[in-house]
Design brief:
Blueprint lengths: L2 H36 L2 H22 L7 H17 L1 H11 L4 H25 L6 H54 L7 H20 L1 H12 L3 E7 L4 E7 L2 E6 L2 E5 L3 H15 L5 E5 L5 H6 L7 E5 L3 H9 L1 H6 L9 E5 L19 E3 L10 E3 L4 H37 L1
Parallel strand pairs: 5-6, 6-7
Antiparallel strand pairs: 1-2, 2-3, 3-4, 8-9
Length: about 425
């Protein structure tokens, strides 16, 4: 194998890693946007994964009909995937706002993106045929593909979504697909019959995605103006969620990740029913714990009762608690309850289980950890006498995860060895 062939082999493997990351990110974006718009994340992610996998199979099947010009076809696939995948969140938000039935558009977008992703790996394997034997090519390409998928699965929830948001994440990876197209054009330029035409196509597509990337805040606001019925008076993306506050006259509504949290017209019914029965039956009210409730509305109802000495409020998102302490519209709604002197400890980290053992927060009564209703999860009840068991279970889960990962690695190594023997 010549030095040029080695360079092609390495660059195509790097390209495989990059396109694997892009493909899984697009899949996660579809599931996340659909969950944001429609709720029921289990259903939305199941549909997105199923459609993508089916379409990838279709793309792999169609790759057999690419008889010649493998490099130009691969480059064209990257450009198309960069445009469609990069604009996926924007297209989905627009379709939801524009059409009465969002489902068919979602299916078509998943089918198009998945088919293009399915075309990539067979084309890369065939492009490498002249460099190495088939069994080595398949092993190397699939290894790069699976490692790329792992990288995407970790980056998406931990880095990309909290810091870039939905629109810019899609656009960034669309640009990455175009960069792979440009790299392939550079490597295979001597085998390409129309390099200038595809170079112009890559440049124009990149300019479009870059322009939308720079205008992402304005695009987000434009989308939300179409999605929400009332005027948006506040919008922020925290590390945990998208926060949107709307107003229609005196009526206020809070949305977290698109899900309605309260409506000022009737929120008192929920918060009275949440607080008043429990406090009326409580034998002691000296110290009270509120889980969640960063809006201060439950605290407002709590302070109507005499005998409340101290209140510990634990909320996940500091952006929510800060908003309801500083925004004049919202402080009027919660009657400045978060500023009341009884609120001794406003924990902005949401680390309830990290409290010191000696810190008595009146956990003698049973507490409820309520899951997001849009995720249709079941509530998990935790008693005070069992709070240490939670840490034990978490530690055990971490050890089991390590064991499962090691077993999967061993199984993958054995499977690659078996495949190499079969193919050899």
């Amino acid at each position: 194998m010549t030095g040029a062939d080695q360079a092609k082999n390495l660059l195509l493997l790097l390209a495989t890693f990059a396109i694997a990351v892009c493909g899984l990110v697009y899949e996660l974006l579809v599931g996340t946007v659909s969950s944001y718009l429609l709720g029921d994340s289990v259903y939305q992610f199941s549909i997105a994964i199923g459609l993508f996998m089916t379409a990838m199979g279709l793309g792999s099947f169609l790759s057999r009909y690419v008889a010649a010009e493998l490099a130009p076809t691969f480059i064209g696939v990257q450009v198309a995937l960069g445009l469609i995948g990069g604009l996926t969140p924007l297209l989905l938000f627009q379709a939801f706002a524009q059409f009465d039935n969002y489902g068919p558009f979602l299916f078509m977008l998943c089918a198009a993106t998945g088919t293009l992703v399915g075309l990539e790996i067979p084309l890369v394997v065939r492009m490498l045929e002249r460099v190495r034997r088939l069994k080595i090519n398949i092993s190397n390409v699939l290894t790069a593909d699976y490692v790329g998928a792992l990288a995407a699965a970790l980056l998406f929830p931990l880095v990309l979504l909290p810091h870039l948001g939905l629109l810019r994440t899609g656009l960034l990876f669309g640009l990455l697909n175009l960069a792979v197209a440009g790299l392939a054009l550079l490597v295979f330029r001597r085998e390409h019959p129309r390099p200038r035409r595809q170079l112009a196509l890559i440049g124009g597509s990149g300019a479009l995605l870059l322009a939308v990337f720079l205008l992402a805040p304005q695009a987000t606001r434009w989308i939300e103006d179409r999605l929400f019925q009332d005027e948006i008076v506040y919008a922020e993306t925290s590390p945990y969620q998208r926060i949107v506050l709307t107003r229609d006259g005196e009526r206020l509504r809070l949305f977290l990740d698109g899900a309605l949290q309260f409506d000022s017209l009737d929120e008192y019914r929920y918060h009275e029913a949440l607080v008043h029965p429990a406090l009326s039956l409580a034998r002691q009210r000296g110290r009270v714990l509120i889980l969640g409730g960063g809006d201060g509305l439950a605290l407002r109802e709590l302070l109507r009762f005499t005998g409340v000495g101290e209140v510990d409020l634990v909320d996940l998102d500091p952006a929510v608690t800060g908003l309801f302490q500083s925004n004049p519209l919202l402080t009027g709604l919660n009657q400045h309850a978060p500023h009341d002197g009884v609120l001794e400890d406003l924990d902005l980290d949401g680390t309830l289980l990290g409290l010191d053992d000696g810190d008595d927060i009146a956990l003698r009564e049973r507490l409820a950890w309520l899951c997001d209703p849009f995720d249709q999860g079941a509530g998990l009840h935790i008693g005070a006498e069992r709070r240490h068991a939670v840490d034990v279970l978490a530690s055990l889960s971490a050890h089991l995860w390590r064991v499962a990962l090691a077993a999967a690695t061993i199984a993958g190594t054995w499977g690659n060895a078996a495949s190499s023997r079969c193919l050899g």
